[in-house]
Design brief:
This protein has helices at 2-17, 20-25, 44-57, 125-131; strands at 27-34, 40-42, 58-69, 75-86, 99-112, 115-123. The chain is of the alpha+beta class. A 6-stranded mixed beta sheet has the order 2-1-6-5-4-3. It has one domain (2-131): Nuclear Transport Factor 2, Chain: A (Roll). A hairpin with a 5-residue loop joins strand 3 (58-69) and strand 4.
Length: 134
């Protein structure tokens, strides 16, 4: 169980450090990524593209991280507050001008073979849009 907790905490430490390669090192080759109010993407390359997209549009830090792990370490959940800045307009979302936001986030993980095999993120998109003035 502590190995899973360490894995999830390492994933978020890499996120906060802006270290995409270290984040990717925490993931399985066939990682499933459920994007909030979006599609499921599969594989490391899709996750790499997602991270590059996010880095060009947002600057974020996960704070107040709480990690919960089931008995056999195969599943985990994390709750945190994302502190961010909206840097560049993202698709159909409102215009960006460096607006700052704080948003509670829940994330769920499946762990297999010491790697994260699934990441599912959930947050309130309407609250985010309200905070950025959309």
């Amino acid at each position: 169980m502590s190995a899973t907790r360490d894995l999830i905490e390492s994933y978020y430490a890499a996120f906060n450090a802006g270290d995409s390669e270290q984040m990717l090192a925490c993931l399985s080759e066939d990682v499933a990524h459920d994007i909030n109010q979006g599609e499921r993407q599969s594989g490391l390359e899709a996750f790499r593209r997602f991270l590059a997209h996010m880095d060009s549009h947002y600057r974020e830090q996960a704070k107040s991280l709480a990690v919960m792990v089931n008995g056999d370490g195969s599943r985990a959940a994390a709750e945190f507050v994302i502190h961010g800045e909206y840097l560049q307009k993202d698709g159909e979302l409102p215009e960006a001008s460096g607006q700052r936001y704080e948003l509670p986030v829940g994330a769920f993980f499946e762990v297999r073979g010491g790697k994260i095999a699934r990441v599912s993120n959930y947050y309130n998109l309407a609250d985010w849009i309200r905070q950025i003035g959309g």
